[in-house]
Each structure stands twice: as structure tokens, then as C-alpha cells.
Amino acid sequence: MKTRVPSLGRRLLRLAGFSLPEVTLAVGVASVALMSVVGLLPILLSSDQENGANTTLTTLASQTLARISADWAELPSGAAKPDEYQYYFSQDGEFVNNAGSLMDAKVVYHCLARLEPVTGISANPGNHVRMVRLEFTYNSPARTTKIIQASLNDDL
Known about the structure:
- The chain is an alpha+beta fold.
- The chain has a domain at 49-153.
- It has two helices and four strands, in the order H-H-E-E-E-E.
- It has helices at residues 8-16, 20-74; strands spanning 84-89, 109-117, 129-139, 143-153.
- Strands 1-2-3-4 form a four-stranded antiparallel β-sheet, covered by helices on one side.
- Strand 3 and strand 4 (143-153) form a beta hairpin.
- The protein is elongated and about 115 Å long.
- The protein starts with 7 loop residues before the first helix and ends with a strand.
């Protein structure tokens, strides 16, 4: 006697696919997730740009402090040290010599360094330490100013 399973193939074909409401719901969930990611892109890009600028400014601050120390070493013995310096840098962070302003085509970063004696702290660091206020101005994309504070040994 033969036993036959009636229309097993047809039943499997009906159960094998997705229904239209299931597909519509899946596409809707995927599109909401995709739009959320696309909405975050401008925030992530501006954050990345700011982090890159902060890294560059840290490098330029280090170069500026080294350049001030080198300028002090070149002064004649007993000569007064200036309280203010201006430096200009290119996009690559290279020092631009004899630049007059941010209008120079090569200049991207301008640094105004002001030196002050250390005051207002309980532990006296001595007369040989100066506070340095580095004010960087650059265009990224709008004109931006960032300030970095540092100290510099005045033993030279």
C-alpha cells in the first residue's frame, strides 16, 4: 500500500517566503536606522575636524615654545626679553618667515605669544618661570581662535 503525502511541496512553497507586510516592516526599520546614521555624519565630521585642529595646534604650540627659547638664546647677555612674539605657520605646520599677516597666501595659522610672570599661586616657582599665553587664529572653515596656556623656563 502506498501512502501519499498530499501536496507537501505546495505547502512548503507557501511557507518558504516572506509576506508583503513582513518585507514592508523590515524595509521601514532598516530605513529608520540608516537615516539615524546619516543624521550623525555632520556631527562626526565636525568633531573629527576639531580633533585634527587640536592635534595641529598642540604641535604648533610646541614649535612656538621651542622657537621662543631659541630666540632667547640668541639675545645678547643681559638684553631684555620681549613680552610678545608673533609667528605664522603654513597648512603643513611649517614656520613661514617674514609673513606680515593672515592675508599671506601661505599662512594658515597665526600665533600671538604673550609672556607674563607667574602670579597668584601659593608655591613660588621662582623668577625663572614665565607663563606663556599662545593665541592661535586660523580659518577652519570660519575664523577661529584657540588659546593654549603653557609655562617656559626663563633660565637662559
